[in-house]
Design brief:
757 residues; mainly alpha; five-stranded mixed sheet
């Protein structure tokens, strides 16, 4: 800290060294947070892991990112990240950790890239602080420890940023093309989410380059055209291929990649309208998540490892759940209510917002004295870039109708960049005693500590009072002492500055470790003392860090001898439904979670999560288990069912068919054999018709069907036909009843056999 006032000299000295010794422990911290114990996640996100298993089997499956080995339907995302995961699985063998490894390395790579990006302009200390802030942003390791896409997406966008900065420094148009082409690659990772950084790229290039406006427009137009070409390249190939020669494009309604990109994975994320014709697409889980996470407050029993708890107020718990699919999904997945202060609400603030007040003060300090008409310094130009990244993304998450907590990783780079650059800038201003601006440093420390106390307060039962009081007291003391010592220059003041940064990073560091301490969740990753629940709400009282699924919730049909009343979903505190869980549509089921009438999926999770609420005969997670099956609620198979299907297979292509990916994924992972998810991920994709199914049965491609729950929207005609034209297989032949039995499709379901001549 004491060298901050001589940034240029420090940077030149550092550049002469091959390794920045201060960077080494930062990288080691990032490596620990991203890599430690990923080998305990046996399945990761089962929906995506099943796809990797399928992609390993043929180039056809690999190119199209087929969910099943039979090439029936794809996953709901473009293929680039899954190509990388498949290559990793090919090199290291097919494991949960081998499909997670690319994302974990990408998380570490993002830390290094931020260091490089900040160091050149803002100084080596800014680079160090930015890298450390990125490493300790809780949602970053939480996502990077899974096989979800977002960590790799952020790394790719930071690579594009490095290319853009180099283009400006070298005045070479080739680097501009490379930067925008890289965004096109990122589009093929998670579609329109990659374009969230475009305002920053356009603003920075216009402001930072010293060329004529005519050239700026020409260069940006050309680069944008290249970006669009790269973006739609895979989509054009897929959409122009005959539908009978490729898998159906999962989660689309017209079998089109472009529809998926601009609809389901695009505009619908902003509007929150993820409904589809004839069904409520992927929505029952949203009601389930909302009820199960932030609007319940339960009393834990002595077997606390299986309980769910919440610290929401009674006023919050009395809110009525919104019907899924209507565009009004406030609070779903604990993402709070839209508004200007959404990022400071519970469920989001503890994932990303720990340093936001300090960032705001840093922005003021970095832009203080800046003239609108210029000229701009290099620091001001790059600060504009990070601001143009931060603001549009923050606005999106403040108003969006539907997203998951882990999407917030998109905010991590600009927040970390401003934390690093701002720490150096505010310290320099403070040491120079530069009028009112010298109060920015103590003000930033004080307000940031106050926010952190607010963030931690709902978790007092899990983390205790001491860390909350400690951060609050130390933040106030250090801010006041720095304010008092503003006129003094000595080493004591330098140490106070270091101490302040340590205090502000202490609790984010703890939160970043919670997926390791408490267990993570690969379906809906989030950090916090309840990280294994994947709900991101107030803390659970679960004590078993290896517990998978939703803190021990038992799926329907569970026969676990270890289950207790606390394993069941309870109604919100203060509800007036007589202890019955009120669901959309006015239905109730005596506390049992049920889908809304006409829903497309019973308990299905969006975003590739595989919620095995349809998996029967589940036993409670055991603390002695050395592996976490985070692909769902213990994404295992019913071995008795598997044995029956294998024994009675007479050459059929598909082991069995089921409504959606939930029941199919674990069997694909276990056997590598084709299992047909008739309606795609959620069960609502209009893939199959009765005539097509008849033809498949006559060809001998499939004869066993597992059906559970209600009709699946667009597949209702198919399901009705199956039930009317099949022979029911007695459950005694395929369904295990032992409490220690492995799992399979839901105990509430039925296995059917159809043979047509």
């Amino acid at each position: 800290m004491k060298h901050m006032n001589s940034e240029v000299k420090e940077e030149r000295t550092s550049n002469k060294k091959r390794i920045d010794l201060f960077l080494v422990p930062i990288v080691l911290i990032a490596a620990f947070l991203n890599l430690f114990k990923i080998w305990t996640d046996e399945y990761a996100n089962a929906y995506y892991t099943a796809a990797v298993k399928s992609m390993l089997q043929s180039f056809h499956n690999f190119f199209y990112a087929s969910f099943d080995p039979g090439g029936y339907v794809t996953i709901d995302k473009p293929p680039v990240v899954f190509w990388i995961q498949t290559i990793s699985a090919k090199i290291f063998g097919f494991h949960g950790w081998s499909v997670i490894l690319p994302q974990a390395l990408a998380g570490i790579g993002s830390v290094l890239l931020l260091y490089v990006l900040l160091k050149r302009t803002f100084g080596v200390w800014a680079g160090r602080f930015a890298a450390l802030a990125m490493a300790l942003t809780p949602i970053v390791p939480a996502v990077s420890r899974t096989n979800n896409i977002d960590s790799m997406l952020v790394f790719t966008l930071l690579v594009a940023t490095w290319m853009l900065f180099r283009a400006v420094r070298t005045a070479k148009f080739g680097w501009v093309l490379a930067a925008f082409a890289m965004i096109g690659v990122a589009f093929n990772m998670k579609m329109l989410q990659a374009y969230m950084v475009l305002p920053a790229f356009y603003v920075f290039y216009v402001v930072a380059t010293k060329i004529t406006w005519k050239k700026k427009i020409a260069f940006l137009t050309t680069a944008t055209a290249l970006m669009l070409a790269v973006s739609v390249s895979w989509a054009v190939v897929v959409d122009s291929t005959s539908a009978d020669k490729r898998p159906y494009m999962g989660s689309s309604q017209t079998n089109s990649v472009l529809e998926l990109a601009f609809g389901y994975n695009g505009i619908n994320r902003l509007t929150g309208n993820t409904s589809v014709t004839g069904s409520s697409h992927k929505q029952p889980a949203q009601a389930q998540q909302q009820t199960a996470s932030s609007e319940t407050k339960q009393t834990s029993n002595s077997n606390a490892e299986s309980s769910q708890s919440s610290n929401q107020s009674k006023s919050s718990s009395s809110k009525k759940m919104q019907a899924p699919g209507g565009g009004n999904q406030n609070g779903m997945f604990n993402t709070g209510n839209p508004g200007p202060f959404r990022l400071f609400q519970k469920g989001l603030s503890d994932q990303i917002s720990w340093l936001l007040p300090f960032v705001i003060f840093s922005i003021v300090g970095l832009f203080a004295g800046m003239k609108f008409k210029g000229p701009y310094t290099t620091k001001q130009k790059e600060s504009l870039f990070w601001l143009a990244w931060l603001l549009p993304v923050a606005v999106f998450f403040s108003i969006a109708g539907f997203f998951h907590q882990y999407y917030l990783i998109m905010l991590a780079p600009p927040i970390a960049a401003f934390a690093g650059a701002g720490a150096v800038a505010l310290w320099s201003i403070y040491k120079q005693r530069n009028g009112w601006k010298s109060w920015l440093l103590p003000g930033g420390i004080l307000t940031t500590a106050a926010l952190q106390v607010y963030i931690m307060s709902p978790y007092v039962s899990s983390i205790g009072v001491a860390p909350i009081a400690g951060v609050g007291a130390l933040g106030v003391i250090l801010a006041l002492v720095l304010a008092v010592r503003k006129e003094r220059k000595n080493s004591v003041t330098n140490y106070l500055g270091v101490a302040a940064m340590v205090v502000l990073l202490a609790m984010p560091a703890y939160w970043a470790m919670t997926p390791i301490i408490y267990g993570g969740n690969s379906m809906l990753p989030a950090a916090g003392p309840d990280s294994s629940s994947g709900m991101g709400g107030p803390p659970s009282t679960a004590t078993n860090s290896k517990q998978s699924g939703f803190n021990g919730m038992q799926p329907p049909g569970s026969s676990s001898s270890n289950s207790s009343s606390n394993n069941q979903m309870q109604p919100p505190t203060g509800s007036s439904n007589g202890g019955q869980m009120q669901m959309p549509g006015g239905s109730s089921n005596n506390g049992q979670m049920q889908p809304p009438s006409g829903s497309s999926n019973s308990g299905q999770m969006p975003e590739g999560s595989s919620n095995n609420s349809q998996m029967p005969n589940s036993s409670s997670s055991k603390s002695s288990s050395s592996k976490r099956k985070s692909g769902g609620m213990n994404a295992e198979v019913n071995q008795k069912l598997l044995n029956y299907l294998t024994k009675n297979n007479t050459g059929e292509k598909y082991l069995f068919a089921t409504t959606d990916s939930t029941s199919a994924a674990p069997y694909i992972i276990k056997t590598g054999k084709p299992v047909m998810a008739m309606g795609g991920f959620s069960g609502s994709d209009p893939i199959l018709t009765v005539s097509k199914l008849k033809a498949m049965i006559k060809k001998g491609e499939v004869k066993y069907f597992y059906l559970s729950g209600m009709g699946k929207g667009g597949q209702s005609d198919v399901i009705t036909w199956i039930k009317e034209n099949s022979k029911e297989i007695p459950s005694s032949k395929w369904q295990s009843t032992s409490s220690s039995a492995q799992q399979g499709p839901s105990g509430n379901g039925t296995l059917y056999e159809i043979t047509l001549k």
